[in-house]
Amino acid sequence: MEKIKIAFHQQGARRNYALPLVLYQQGLLQNLFTDFYAYSWMIEWARATEKLSNGKISITGNLCKRRQNGLPDDKVYSLDWLFLFSNFPKKNLSYQESYLLNQKISFFIAQLIKNEKEVISHIYCYSFSAKNCREVAKTKILIVDQIHTPIKSFLPILTEEMKIHSDWSNEISLLSGMEELYLPKEQEDKESIDFFFAPSDSVKESLINDLCIDEEKVYLNPYPAPFWLYNYNTTFKENSTRIMRSSTSGDKLRILFVGNVDLRKGVPYLLQALRKLNPHKFTARIVGSIGINESKVKEYSDIVTFMGKLDKQELAKQYEWADVFVFPSLSEGSAGVIYEAMAFGLAVITTKSSGSWVTHGIEGLIIEERNIEQIVESLLMYMENPNLVDLHGQNSWQKIKSFNIEETGIRLKNLFSLIS
Predict the structure, then answer these.
(1) Which CATH number fits domain 6-224+404-419: 3.40.50.2000, 3.90.1150.10, 3.40.50.300, 3.30.1330.10?
(2) What percent of the chain has pLDDT above 70?
(3) Among 223, 259, 306, 356, which is most buried by a count of CB atoms within 10 Å?
(4) Could you give the CA distance from residue 194 to residue 52 in angstroms, rounded to a whole number?
């Protein structure tokens, strides 16, 4: 069998470059090809600049977000940063402009792969980059990581949701953008793809049933657990014993939601459920960019603290604070925030559509989409049974440990052996 040498096409620092790192550790990564990457010389330059400015300039932290210390610099090819920042403005873009910008960046990353196509055996990319990759390496095995439910599956859900909650949010631009741009792109790209990696059962089912992908071309591949969040001065360590919560029957249940605060995430259903509960029995925090009307934020601010988008250090503090993570999403790939919540030992209330690896009654509770009463009942169950919060949280933490980098690497290596 030909030696596996994977070209990994990635825009941004998705999951802290965890998948390229996994492939590198397994000896499968030829190179990571990306837009902007902070090489070690950049970090050294940034630190020297900060020192000369006596702390008036602070840039190292932001650069480190675009770096994975476990990857040697010579394994990464990125676009020239001066070219990138002078040619690709990213502020105040319309939905269409944002789509076209992402496609343009994807194209230029693919051109980097073109220069190395003679030494690679596979190309691994994310959704909507398949055609760009196929055009530069026509004979290579092309794998797409389907990071979200296909647009064809999600579009009817969003359309219906906008009718149900027209007073909550106006996402007409998002809806039209999906119809005009992403839906035809999805159909176009699928012809270029040899195999799909689905992060959850719900995505696998959707690829097969809605996009009519041959079942033999779709493989389950959950993401690695985000243990890198432990680096933000947390009390959690990957190999330590999970700290038990101090919940007693007299404590308020600490409820957390993390994600974009919009219709797709099921936020209206969560807020309406919280309104039905005794406010003296819980404390709730919602973390994420606000995508609902300001009037609704004001309406529910008496029972929920809207915290906005937080950096990773502040986000880690919220996971440490919480008892229960509630995520009633209507459509996901495999929601990264649930991996994060499980890594912090939280009991989870979520839907099948979230694409989580939570088992009902073990690590948390699986509820129906759009079901306010089931959210209420689940939260009441935890309020009345604090020991169950600890049990499900402990089970969450134990389960997610099997999604560590090493186990993910073994799983990926086996997958590539199957498809090569």
Answers:
(1) 3.40.50.2000
(2) 92
(3) 356
(4) 52
